[in-house]
């Protein structure tokens, strides 16, 4: 395998790795957007649940 082919193959791997990292990043953002509001509303709730009151004592 000559140098040009090796360089092209390495460049292809880099592009594939960049695409995979980008995909993981996008999925993490989407999951964070879906899960975060649930956490925020759970902690910001003004209604006290008896089990939570007992746990805080």
What key attributes describe this structure?
mainly alpha; 57 residues; rod-shaped; 2 helices
3D structure, described in words:
- This protein has 57 residues and is mainly α.
- 84% of the residues lie in helices and 0% in strands.
- The protein has helices at residues 3-43, 50-56.
- The termini are far apart.
- The chain crosses the membrane at residues 20-40.
Tell me the number of strands: 0
* Alpha plus pi helix count: 2
Order of helices and strands: HH
* General shape: rod-shaped
Mean pLDDT: 80
Which regions contain 5 or more consecutive residues with pLDDT less than 50? Answer: none
Percentage of residues in helical conformation: over 70%
From the alpha carbons, calculate the radius of gyration and give it in angstroms.
Answer: 24 Å
Main β-sheet description? none
Beta fraction: under 5%
Q: N- to C-terminal separation?
A: 71 Å
| SS-derived structural category | mainly alpha
Keywords: Membrane, Transmembrane, Transmembrane helix
Transmembrane segments: 20-40
Quick overview of this protein structure:
The chain crosses the membrane at residues 20-40. The protein has 57 residues and is mostly helical.
Blueprint of the fold:
Layout (H helix, E strand, L loop, with lengths): L2 H41 L6 H7 L1
């Amino acid at each position: 395998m000559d140098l040009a082919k090796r360089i092209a193959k390495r460049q292809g791997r880099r592009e594939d790795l960049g695409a995979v990292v980008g995909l993981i990043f996008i999925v993490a953002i989407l999951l964070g957007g879906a899960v975060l509001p649930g956490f925020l509303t759970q902690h910001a709730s003004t209604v006290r649940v008896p089990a939570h009151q007992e746990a805080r004592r």
